[in-house]
Amino acid sequence: MTVTLADVAARAQVSPATVSRVLNGNYPVAAATRERVLRAVDDLDYVLNGPASALAAATSDLVGILVNDIADPFFGIMASAVQSEIGGPGGRAGGERLAVVCNTGGSPERELTYLTLLQRQRAAAVVLTGGAVEDAEHAAAVAGKLRRLADAGSRVVLCGRPPAPGTDAVALTFDNRGGGRRITEHLISLGHRRIGYIAGPQERTTTRHRLEGHREALAAHGVEDDPALTVHGRYDRRSGHDGTVELLRRDPSLTAVVAANDTVAIGACAALRGAGLRIPDDVSVAGFDDLPFSGDAVPALTTVRLPLYEAGARAGRVAMGKEEPPPGDVATVRGELVVRKSTGVPR
Amino acid sequence: MTVTLADVAARAQVSPATVSRVLNGNYPVAAATRERVLRAVDDLDYVLNGPASALAAATSDLVGILVNDIADPFFGIMASAVQSEIGGPGGRAGGERLAVVCNTGGSPERELTYLTLLQRQRAAAVVLTGGAVEDAEHAAAVAGKLRRLADAGSRVVLCGRPPAPGTDAVALTFDNRGGGRRITEHLISLGHRRIGYIAGPQERTTTRHRLEGHREALAAHGVEDDPALTVHGRYDRRSGHDGTVELLRRDPSLTAVVAANDTVAIGACAALRGAGLRIPDDVSVAGFDDLPFSGDAVPALTTVRLPLYEAGARAGRVAMGKEEPPPGDVATVRGELVVRKSTGVPR
DNA sequence: CTGTTAGCGCGTTCAA
DNA sequence: TTGAACGCGCTAACAG
C-alpha cells in the first residue's frame, strides 16, 4: 500500500539500513549509493513514517508551543517567532521540524492536557508562552509535567512567563512589574492623581506583576492607591469597555485609565468616547504590549513595548539548542515606554 | 527507564492488550478490570507512547491546520475554531486530539513542506485555511499532496479556500467575489464614482476574487474602471498605507478607497489622516473580513463580515467526521455587508 | 470478556 | 562503507 523504507531499499538495491542512513545523514555513505537511494526516494515518492521513526529513535521532530489564545496577536507574534527558529536543518530525517501550536484558551486543564499530549508525542521541545496561573495545585501539576518532559529528553523553555520552581526550564520573563511602574510614573509625571486601573484576570502572574508595578509607582510618588480605582476583567476589548464604564461610575473625576494591555485599552477608549469624553483631553489612556494596531489607534496608544518577536525567536533558538540558555537559566526582558497620543496633561 | 504499557499490565495483573483496550475504550472490558488498570496507570504515572501507538494503529491523533500568518487574527480565529471542534471524545487513547497549527507565512514551499510533514506524521486530518496561490505548478503539487494524504487516510478540508481540482477535499469557500461586489455597490449607491482599490498579493485567489467582485459592481453600474485606481500589496497595514499614498498621488480627486481587508483598511485610514483628509467626509474607506478591531477603529469600519469562527468550526467538524460534508463537497460561505462610520456620501 | 501472537516501519547495534 | 538482525511500544487479529 504505502511505500516504505524497504521498498526504497529494494529499488535502490541496497539494504534498508543504508536508506535510513542517507535519510538521516548520520553515517558515512558512498556518494554513488546516496545518489541511487535519493533517486529511488524520488521515484517512489517516499515519505518517511514519522511515528515509526520516532519510535525507533525515541524522539520526534515535534516542537510544541503553548499559547493562551491563538486569535490574539500577542501570542501569534511569539508563536510565529518561535516557529521561525525551529525549522531548517538540524531536525532528523529531512531536516524539518514540525511546530505544534497548541491553544489552551487560558484553561489550566487544557494546559495540562496539552503537556501530556506533547509528552506522549515525545516532543523534541516545548515552549510555553504567556503568564502562568497562580494556583499552587496547578503550578505543582505543571511543574511535574515539565520535569517529566525534561526527563524524557524534551527541552522546555518559558517565554514571557515566570520561572517554574522545581524545574530546570529556561525562562525568558517579561519585566511586567517594571513596565507597569513606568507607565504609571509617566502618568503621574504628567500630573495625574486619580488613575483608574483595569487589570486582567485575578489569578494570573502577568496581571499581578503589572498591577504591582502600578502600585509601586503610586506609592513611590505619594499618590493615594484607592482600591475603588482598580477593576479586574479578562484580557479583551469587552473587559476594557465594561471596566471603564464601571470606573467612571465609581469616580467620574478620574483623569487617566491604565489598561492591562492594548486590547483592553482599545475597549477603554471606546467606552470613554461613548461617554462623550475626549482622549487625552478629558481622560488619558495607556496600554501595554504595543501590538501592531496600537500605533494605528486614534489617538495612537501610549503603551509599553514588549519585544514579543525577539523574545519568541530567542526562546525558539534556546529550545533548539542553537543558543546558550541565559546564566541561571533566567533572563528578564524589559519593556520600553512608548509615549504617543493617548496620554496628556490632565484637564 | 520510562514506564511502558507492559509495566502497567504487570502492575494491574492483566495482559498488555487489556491495558490498551481500556485506554482506547474500543472494546468491552469488565468494570473491575478497568478500575484496576486505571489505578495502575495513575500509580505509575503512565503516559501512552504516541509514536508507538500511531505506528501500530497506522494513524495518529494529530490534526494539522495550515495558516498563512499565525499573527493575523483572520487565521487565528479560524484556527481556534477548528481546534475547538477536534478535542473531546472521539480521539484514540484518552480521547484528546492534538491540533497542530502550521504557519506557512504565505510561502508555497512551506505549504508543501508542512503537508509532507503532516503526511509523515500520518495526521488524522488536515485543514487548509485562507486563499490559495494561483500557480499551476504549485497547485498541482498541492493537489498531489492532498491526494496522497487522503489516500493515507487523512481527511482533508479546505476552509476559506476554493476547491482543489483533482482532489476530493471538502471545501468551505468564502464568497469573496460576492462580498467584493456588495461593498463596492454600497459605495456606488452612496454616490462614489472615483473609487480606489488596494488589492492583496497578485497571485492569490482571495485577491483575485475580491477584485473581480469590485469590477463586477463597477461594470454593473456603468462606472469607469480606471486601471490606475487599483494597486496591489500585501495583506498588511503597511500596504494599506503605502497604497493609499500612491492612489492619492495618482488621483487626488478620489472619494473612496476599498481595501483588500480590514488590516489594509486601517493602514489606508492612517495614510488619509496623514494627508489631512477626514474619513468619511473627504474620503470613504471600506474593508473586508470584519475582524474584532474593525468595530473599534475610529471611525468604525464599514466592511464585509466573514463568519470566520463558524466556518472554522464547521471545517473542524467535517474534518472529524462529526458533520456531513456539504453536497458536492463544496459549500459557499457568504459575507454580510456591515455598514458603519467609515463610509458616507462623497464630498 | 481476556490472553497470545504477530507485526507496524524504522534506527541501530554488531559483523563483515 | 554496507548488510543482517533485533527491538522500540503498541494495536489488532485470533483464540479461548
Automatic annotation (TrEMBL), chains A, B:
The protein's matches in SUPFAM superfamilies, at most eight in alphabetical order, are given as: lambda repressor-like DNA-binding domains (SSF47413), Periplasmic binding protein-like I (SSF53822)
- InterPro entries reported in the protein's UniProt record: HTH_LacI, LacI/GalR-like_sensor, Lambda_DNA-bd_dom_sf, Peripla_BP_I
Q: Where is the signal peptide?
A: none
* Domain HTH lacI-type, residue spans: 3-57
Instruction: Please name the Pfam families in this protein's record.
Output: LacI, Peripla_BP_3
Its name, as the record gives it, is: LacI family DNA-binding transcriptional regulator
Q: Where are the transmembrane segments?
A: none
Q: Which GO terms describe its molecular function?
A: DNA-binding transcription factor activity; transcription cis-regulatory region binding
Keyword DNA-binding (UniProt):
yes
What does the UniProt keyword field contain? DNA-binding, Transcription, Transcription regulation
| PANTHER family named in the record | LACI-RELATED TRANSCRIPTIONAL REPRESSOR (PTHR30146), LACTOSE OPERON REPRESSOR (PTHR30146:SF153)
